[in-house]
Amino acid sequence: MRLVFECVECGGHYLPPESMAYPDGPASPVWCSRCQSAKHAAGVQEDPLLARVALAAARAALARRVTDGEPTARGDVRPSRPPLSRRARSGPGGVRSRLG
């Protein structure tokens, strides 16, 4: 399970690498990669307190997802009956919806 963050600048949700590091530097828990590069180009540094709060919120959301039990893919879901062949559907009694 990975942490999902919400960008403070644009409001988009993003999924940084698990190591919290991009090839060009550390990932921010406050800004998505686009906003982070724009802020660094403008010379703006992220607030360390805001970064801690964002990290704590992402961890709390992850813990909620784990305890609530995310819906998992059901294994081996098969229909109750095999699909009708083209020949079975061609006759007057071939439609199963008329039955029953």
How would you describe the overall organization of this protein?
The protein has 3 helices and 4 strands. The strands form 2 sheets. Strands 1-2 form a two-stranded antiparallel ribbon. It has a two-stranded antiparallel ribbon with strand order 3-4. The mean pLDDT is 78. It is mainly alpha-helical and 100 residues long. The longest helix is centred in the middle third of the chain and has 21 residues, at 48-68. β3 (21-22) and β4 (25-26) form a beta hairpin.
Query: What is the topology, as strand order, of the major beta sheet?
Result: 1-2
Q: How large is the count of helical segments?
A: 3
SSE arrangement, N to C: EEEEHHH
Q: Main beta sheet: strand number and arrangement?
A: 2 strands, antiparallel
Distance between the termini: 46 Å
Residue share in β-strands: 5-15%
Basic shape:
elongated
Q: Roughly how much helix do the residues carry, as a percent range? A: 25-40%
Q: What's the mean pLDDT score?
A: 78
Question: Strand tally, please?
Answer: 4
Structural class: mainly alpha
Q: What is the C-alpha radius of gyration, as a whole number of Å?
A: 25 Å
Low-confidence stretches: none
Architecture blueprint of SSEs:
Layout: E1 5-6, E2 13-14, E3 21-22, E4 25-26, H1 33-42, H2 48-68, H3 86-90
Antiparallel strand pairs: 1-2, 3-4
